[in-house]
Write a structure and sequence with these properties.
Layout (H helix, E strand, L loop, with lengths): L1 H10 L4 H29 L3 E9 L2 E7 L1 H24 L9 H20 L3 H19 L6 H29 L16 H18 L8 H7 L2 H11 L1 H13 L5 H23 L4 H28 L3 H36 L10 H4 L3 H12 L7 H13 L5 H27 L15 H18 L4
Helix pairs in contact: 1-2, 1-4, 2-3, 2-4, 3-4, 3-9, 3-13, 3-18, 4-5, 5-6, 6-7, 6-8, 7-10, 8-9, 8-12, 9-13, 11-12, 11-17, 12-13, 12-16, 12-17, 13-15, 13-16, 13-18, 15-18
Length: about 475
């Protein structure tokens, strides 16, 4: 459905309104249908496998929807569906001015390529989806190609993506030396230093997509340059492909080495703390949110590191808490960050700017958007009862009881410092909402519906997790 929607939107590119409808509502419908098999696999725990009657070099053309892939696909389908509905109104102002047919074709290909990445059962197929994802998102970052900022952001993004792809090709090449082919089912863990080399290549290659510091250079440039519904998808789910890839690669490299966990823990702590500090220094709303994503990716990477250290140290309960917290935060971050980027898009659409100094009195002019943005900000601060709290709480439990000792408790201290910095960053945003109005416009009602539909999962999820629903 996604490929058909993409082709139809491109075919109708000379009729912008019809191309919009085909691309947006086709993506929304495909996302709704995509939730069905993902939900079934999560509920039953039984993977689905599709093997097509063709082959790729050194392997089969096969897809596997296992519980890990299904878990990552749930936020993909939720967020891309809501973003498509949102974008149908958001991009109306560009009809006749921008190639909307191409933009919607790229949006659908981006969604389809993420599905390929999460379900590929072969390294060649995985890399094909990975590169399609990079190409489609490159076109979307280049949407405002007349602007120097957009061209620069797109160049940095595609350069970082190319470097990451080369690192991943090297990792898969080394991994294949101890395996009979490139099918994931045939991968066998290499021994000794070769396993560590694969881990380091994977950490760097997937880190370039996830946005770990110092591999984050593209992220604060690309997110503000892209249309807001694209920013929501890139920040909410696309960067999670890097985390998924790292988790999947760790599964190929068992048994783990303890220093791998410490490396992830250190890289995550740096991204966590510096991401929050860099967010404080920004004056443009979408850049604040971009650095907040770097910070949250750091939290998840810290959790993966804690889980690895605990597993190697013989603390399975602490390992389970850390890994569970990491996965839960993947889901929670996708929801509240999607909500925040769509809220930022409503501000940008109405005020014509996202510069914080120019945005005053928005709560009075956006009576529907403001409370939803506030809820997303509270979730980003990990304040109970919002969903951002639960994942970070599990991660902190894994750190407190980690048998690795003082180092894990130091990681928890860094975590708490990060939380304080994050809270102050959000307070800066609240202050900007409190002064006299800087403009007189209100926004079309249709743009608020996706916000509300996206905010409910935040509240519903935390009610379920706290046992109140």
């Amino acid at each position: 459905m996604l490929l058909a929607s993409s082709a139809l939107a491109f075919a109708l590119r000379k009729e912008p309104a019809r191309a919009q409808d085909a691309g947006a509502y086709g993506a929304a419908a495909a996302s709704l249908f995509g939730l069905l098999p993902a939900g079934r696999v999560l509920l039953t725990g039984m993977p689905d496998t599709l093997v097509l009657p063709w082959s790729v070099p050194l392997g089969s053309l096969s897809f596997t929807l296992d519980p890990l892939a299904a878990f990552f696909l749930v936020p993909v389908f939720i967020l891309t569906g809501l973003s498509a509905i949102y974008g149908a109104d958001y991009l109306k102002a560009y009809e006749g001015k921008k190639p909307l047919g191409l933009a919607w074709a790229a949006f659908n290909i981006l969604t389809a390529s993420m599905v390929v990445v999460f379900t590929a059962a072969n390294a060649v197929l995985f890399m094909l989806g990975w590169e399609l994802m990079a190409a489609a998102s490159f076109l979307l970052v280049l949407f405002d190609h007349e602007k120097e900022q957009s061209r620069r952001a797109a160049f940095i993004y595609i350069s970082a993506g190319g470097a990451g792809a080369l690192l991943l090709l090297a990792a898969f090449s080394l991994l294949s030396q101890s395996s009979p082919g490139l099918d994931f089912a045939h991968f066998a863990a290499p021994s000794g230093g070769l396993a560590s080399a694969v881990f380091l290549l994977a950490l760097a290659g997937f880190g370039l997509k996830a946005g770990f510091i110092p591999l984050h250079v593209w992220l604060p440039e690309a997110h503000p340059a892209a249309p807001s519904q694209v920013s929501a998808v890139m920040s909410g789910v696309m960067i999670k492909t890097g985390l998924y890839g790292l988790i999947r690669m760790l599964g190929f490299l068992s048994p783990w080495q303890e220093w791998w966990g410490w490396a992830m823990l250190a890289a995550g702590a740096v991204s966590c703390v510096l991401g929050a500090l860099f967010a404080l220094a920004q004056h443009e709303l979408k850049r604040v949110l971009a650095y907040s994503s770097i910070e949250n990716v750091g939290i998840i990477l810290m959790a993966l590191g804690l889980g690895t250290v605990a597993a190697v140290s013989g603390a399975p309960l602490m390992s389970a808490l850390a890994f569970s917290g990491a996965l839960l935060h993947v889901l929670n971050h996708s929801l509240f960050k999607g909500l925040l980027f769509m809220g930022a898009g409503a501000v940008l659409h109405g005020a014509g700017t996202a510069e914080l100094e120019a945005l005053g009195g928005l709560a009075r002019r956006l009576p529907r958007t403001a409370p939803l943005f506030l809820a997303g900000s509270a979730a980003a601060c990990a304040l109970p009862p919002f969903n951002g709290f639960t994942g970070e709480f599990l991660i902190s439990l894994g750190a407190v009881g980690n048998a690795a000792g003082d180092g894990a408790r130091m990681a928890l201290l860094d975590f708490n410092k990060r939380a304080e910095a994050d809270e102050w960053a959000r307070k800066v945003e609240y202050v900007e909402l409190s002064v006299e109005p800087a403009f007189e416009k209100e926004f079309m009602y249709a743009m608020h519906l996706p916000h509300m539909r996206d905010s409910f999962p935040n509240l519903k999820a935390v009610l379920a997790e706290e046992g109140l629903g």
